[in-house]
Design goal:
Layout lengths: L1 H14 L4 E6 L2 H10 L10 E7 L3 H12 L13 H10 L15 H6 L11 H4 L1 H15 L5 H8 L1 E7 L5 H10 L12 H9 L3 E10 L2 E13 L4 E9 L8 H15 L4 E6 L11 H4 L3 E5 L2 E7 L10 E4 L2
Length: about 325
């Protein structure tokens, strides 16, 4: 009954958008069979984004799980009933949360819940689908390994993207993405929903979101962009955040084209973007360079610019569709 209650608790976390994975020292076939066939199992294989069962070092497996999910290792919580395994992971991966679990399994739920690892100020439809999104992402990585040519892989994904202006329906997810994103966040701006609404009402700012789907399913709202349009013929990228789930698929090129088109519609002659380095966003240090923007010297940080007199659009394998 204690283990059943713990599974139900984990299931409820999954339904709130917490990603569940397995990191077990076991025979993979035996463990998977128990999950699939045991009549009292609450959690099933489809509840886990990654199912890792082998006899390797658990810290190494945790690193591999984070890489598969394309999230930072520091985002993980490692729950294990073995004190030796807990201590080993704490020693090798001190950035991971490792709660001390009691010997009595009847106390597992209370021990984990009282740490408040999974409390959140908001909940969106994207959160509810997060587990399936990460499971599908793992399938994409398996498919990618079958292709020696990245272009063939991207074509085979059959990606479609829709673009829309910020609206009340998507504003909670947009604000969440802006405030939670660390790795693909070029300027580290943080805005509440009310602040975003005020910016848009000023007429100086334009915001649009991007949603992506492919042959494996819906990735949801994966990027939010806020442009500031000046009266001097210059548009600036105030905010550009994107989910790391969709990196290296040409989404950056697709968004570049959308930003160029938006700035051109406003009559701007130049589009500028700023990169503010942090400990977590080194991933995007060269994104403007890769997109063909030129570095310019400014007093307040690292700025990049592209001329719009002859707009340059980047090739990609993403089909734009109506929202």
């Amino acid at each position: 009954e204690a283990f059943l209650a713990f599974q139900k608790y984990l299931k409820s976390l999954s339904e709130r958008g917490v990603i569940l994975t397995v990191c077990s020292k076991n025979e993979a076939d035996i463990a998977a069979e128990a999950v699939r066939k045991h009549p009292e199992m609450v959690l099933r294989m489809e509840d886990f984004a990654v199912f890792t069962c082998n006899w390797s070092n658990k810290a190494d497996n945790i690193r591999a799980i984070a890489e598969t999910l394309e999230i930072g290792v520091e985002s993980l919580v490692f729950v294990d009933d073995n004190p030796v395994e807990r201590q080993q992971v704490r020693g090798e991966l001190p950035m991971i949360a490792v709660p001390e679990m009691p010997e009595d399994p009847a106390l597992y739920v209370r021990a984990l819940d009282r740490q408040m690892y999974f409390e959140t100020a908001s909940f969106t439809s994207e959160d509810q689908k997060r587990g399936s999104m990460y499971r599908n992402n793992a399938k994409r990585k398996v498919l990618k390994q079958q292709f020696s040519d990245i272009d063939f892989f991207l074509k085979d994904l059959k990606m479609e993207a829709s673009v829309g202006a910020f609206d009340s329906q998507n504003l909670p997810r947009i604000s969440q993405l802006i405030n939670k994103s660390n790795q693909f966040h070029l300027t580290t701006t943080r805005y509440s929903e009310s602040q975003i609404e005020s910016m848009l009402e000023s007429g100086k700012y334009e915001g649009f979101w991007v949603k992506l789907q492919d042959r494996f399913g819906d990735n949801g709202l994966i990027s939010a962009i806020i442009l500031e349009h000046g009266d001097d013929g210059v548009s600036k990228v105030d905010t550009w955040v994107m989910s790391c789930r969709v990196l290296a698929r040409g989404v950056e090129d697709f968004i570049h084209n959308e930003m160029v088109a938006a700035a051109t519609r406003r009559g701007s002659e130049r589009l500028q973007g700023r990169y503010i380095p942090t400990k977590k966003n080194k991933l995007v240090a060269d994104v403007y360079s890769r997109l063909g923007w030129e570095a310019i010297t400014e007093a307040d940080g690292e700025w990049w610019e592209i001329q719009l007199l002859e707009p340059s659009f980047r090739p990609n394998h993403i089909k734009k569709v109506s929202p």
